[in-house]
Design a protein that fits this description.
Blueprint (H helix, E strand, L loop, with lengths): L3 H6 L17 H31 L6 H29 L5 H35 L1 H7 L2 H18 L7 E8 L2 E8 L7 H31 L11 H42 L9 H25 L1 H23 L5 H18 L9 H8 L1
Length: 375
């Protein structure tokens, strides 16, 4: 992140030579950074890639909600690749990516961070419409509309973040017998405060404020308005409604956890920026800076784990994806002719599984259709 060069200034006395083999950070900071960043980024990159593959390669997983989750996964991948992995080389060595790397990496960092917030906001609004306005949701909550909204969000954020191409530059931390190259501010830090506060408002305060209000309304519908009692003759329909309601609750809980973790894991960094806006010199404790960074990387890595733990549909899709990758090589060597009966049986099983396990991501009951078909 952009704050690293200021922290480096406070890590060394003025008589240290940076052209010698003296480490940029204390050895314990380097070790902790390398181990934790590699672990978090490795898990996060693998998990977010699986989210994208699962949705794109499974037809019944292509829903409006999952489209926003794919957008969030791609944004998290950008954060992990553009912020997480370069952090390792920045801790153990000088800035090695040059002027173009400084511009592009900084741009991608803020692009991924801001798109994550935009995707969560769009996801929250989609959930509110799907659950609290189910009739309008049939027209508003569609895959094609979700794709258009996502494209607009990416275009807006990509244009908004272009300003960072003009705000950063290669900087040098001067010492008595050398200098350390780093990617930093082009001008005084105070001139960047309005930009940071704008980011803080657009991509943290507004998304969380909106999520608090909308999830409160969603909770009132799902958890405080139980289904009314129905006659025995409508027992099957009641079961279908209860199943759909249970599915909507499960998805809403999962997405609410995503929003809560977003709020908690981004709070240290956002708080640091606000506090340092009024402090001179700014608070740049090296261990607290590392903690803030790790929280950001963890926020980008933890979402696939949440999907796997809280969504049966994603858990089954993850397992199926892993099994398909394992069986693909085995099938080409073991079978030389098509087995028509087995293929038809598998297709029938997949079709029934699609109906029975489909979660009602748009607020429309699916279990009732299954019950009617079975009768």
């Amino acid at each position: 992140m952009i704050w690293s060069w200021e922290a480096k200034k406070q890590c060394f006395p003025s008589n240290k030579s940076l052209f010698s083999h003296t480490p940029l950070y204390p050895l314990e900071v380097q070790v902790v950074t390398i181990l934790l960043v590699l672990l978090i980024c490795g898990v996060g990159i693998a998990g977010n890639v699986m989210v994208v593959l699962v949705v794109l390669r499974t037809k019944h997983m292509v829903t409006p909600t999952n489209c926003y989750l794919v957008s969030l996964a791609v944004a998290d991948l950008i954060v992990l690749l553009a912020a997480g992995l370069p952090n390792i080389s920045d801790v153990v060595a000088s800035w090695v990516y040059g002027y173009a790397g400084c511009l592009c990496i900084t741009y991608l960092q803020y692009l991924g961070i801001n798109i994550s917030a935009c995707s969560i906001t769009a996801l929250t609004v989609e959930r509110y419409i799907a659950i609290c306005h189910s009739i309008k949701a049939q027209l508003l909550c569609t895959v094609s509309r979700a794709k258009r909204i996502i494209a607009c969000l990416w275009l807006f954020t990509a244009l908004y973040c272009l300003m960072w191409f003009f705000l950063v530059d290669i900087s040098q931390i001067s010492f008595s017998d050398g200098a350390q190259v780093s990617c930093g501010y082009r001008v005084s830090r105070n001139l960047y405060m309005p930009i940071y506060f704008l980011d803080f408002t657009l991509f943290y305060v507004i998304p969380l404020g909106l999520a608090t209000v909308l999830y409160g309304l969603i909770a009132r519908i799902l958890f405080m308005n139980p289904l009314p009692a129905t006659p025995h003759s409508m027992k099957l329909s009641c079961r279908g409604n209860k199943s759909a309601l249970s599915s909507r609750k499960q998805v809403t809980k999962m997405l609410a956890v995503v929003v809560i973790l977003f709020a908690l894991l981004w709070m240290p960094y956002r708080t640091l920026v606000v506090v340092n806006s009024f402090m001179d010199p700014p608070y740049l404790n090296i261990w607290f800076l590392l903690f803030c960074r790790l929280c950001i990387y963890l926020n980008s890595a933890i979402n696939p784990i949440i999907y796997n733990l809280m969504s049966q549909k994603f858990r089954a899709a993850f397992r199926k994806l892993c099994k398909c990758e394992q069986k693909r090589t085995e099938t080409t060597t073991q079978y030389n002719i098509p087995v028509y009966y087995s293929a038809m049986k598998d297709c029938s099983h997949d079709s029934s599984e699609h109906v029975t396990e489909q979660e009602d991501l748009n607020g429309f009951p699916a279990t009732a259709r299954k019950t009617k078909h079975s009768r």
